[in-house]
Fold this protein.
Amino acid sequence: MTVARKRKSIVNRGSFRVLGIETSCDETSVAILKISKNSVEILHHEIASQIPVHEIYGGVVPEVAARLHVKETVELLDRAMATHYSLLTTHLPFDVIAVAQGPGLATALRVGIDAARTLAFALEKPIVGVNHLEGHLASAWLVSENRKHWKFPILFLLVSGGHTELVLMKDFCSYRVIGRTRDDAAGEAFDKTGKLIGLSYPAGPQIAKLAENGNPRAFDIPRPMINDPSFDFSFSGLKSAVRRLWEKMPQVVRAKKKTRVDLCASIQEAIVDVLVAKTIAAARKHRPQQLAIVGGVSANHHLQERLRQAVKKELRGVSLLKAARGLHTDNAAMIAAAGAWHFRRGERHDWRKIDAQPEWDL
Ligand code: KG4
Ligand code: ZN
């Protein structure tokens, strides 16, 4: 049978399994998804986080990340294959490989890509390179309830450690970025201000936890570009304002628990105010059928709740779609899902040529 005929038969079967590989930053992850006409099943999913190691350095060290990815990718792939390989039928547990191609750290991305290329060559399987940002969008599609409401266009607020974008999804694999950050991403705003006040990396979840007991109006933190007519963001001014505030504060005030919780609540409120205002303004202009929030920062409960209330008040008939718990931050299930969208359209990459695209935008 020729390779072309083999490929055709996979899609025609109506169901296929995708092996997803994610190594773009500080999480190594491998997943196997079964995609059928009316269902999506996560058959296998593992995430090996490097955060405990990068925490020591106060941020992600690319060389360290790449070395850890080598070790973890092999272990995770080995386990996925061993768990799902059927000795009786000698069937491989997947039909196609989807790998995060970018954006991300070049050396880290290449670890996943090289693993994917090796498998594609050795096992004669097709390979699809996936945009990591598209993967984040697909994380919302992995929730079956969301798929029932999946009507285009969908406006996504994509908020992660490296990106803050408002994306209009017009169809599967068709996007228009209508706003993006001009400097720091929302996740960076959390991480960098948190670092300033002595929190470890990544500070986002810790700020969210401390903020639960703080007063969000205790400190006057700027809301950059909140009234700007564009849908772009800017968070570096917010970070500088927190630095100035912190440096001016006497040591005895800094040391108080109340200062810290109030400052965390004030930082979170400022970031959330900007994200909610811009998202609602973009939705009013572009009138999407649905709204979705994805990316690491979308795990923030305060952001979820504020956006939910704003959608209910301001956008009639629109529901807010979120990723499932555990799929907000980087993972391979979302990469496999986005890979499936492209594979269904007949897209394939040549394993000899596929390479990292560290600056790839949507
Ligand atoms: O999507 P992600 O895993 O990585 C990138 O693709 O960049 O996002 C990581 C980011 C970090 O900046 C982290 O601080 C932030 O998501 N984050 C949060 C929360 N959980 C993760 N930020 C605020 N509140 C949270 N609960
Ligand atoms: Zn990400």
Summary: Residues 1-7 have pLDDT under 50 and may be disordered. The pocket of KG4 (ligand 1) is lined by residues 25, 160-162, 187, 190-191, 202-205, 208, 295-297, 299-300, 329-330 (CB under 6 Å). The beta strands are 16-22, 27-35, 40-49, 96-102, 127-131, 154-159, 164-171, 174-180, 290-294, 320-322.
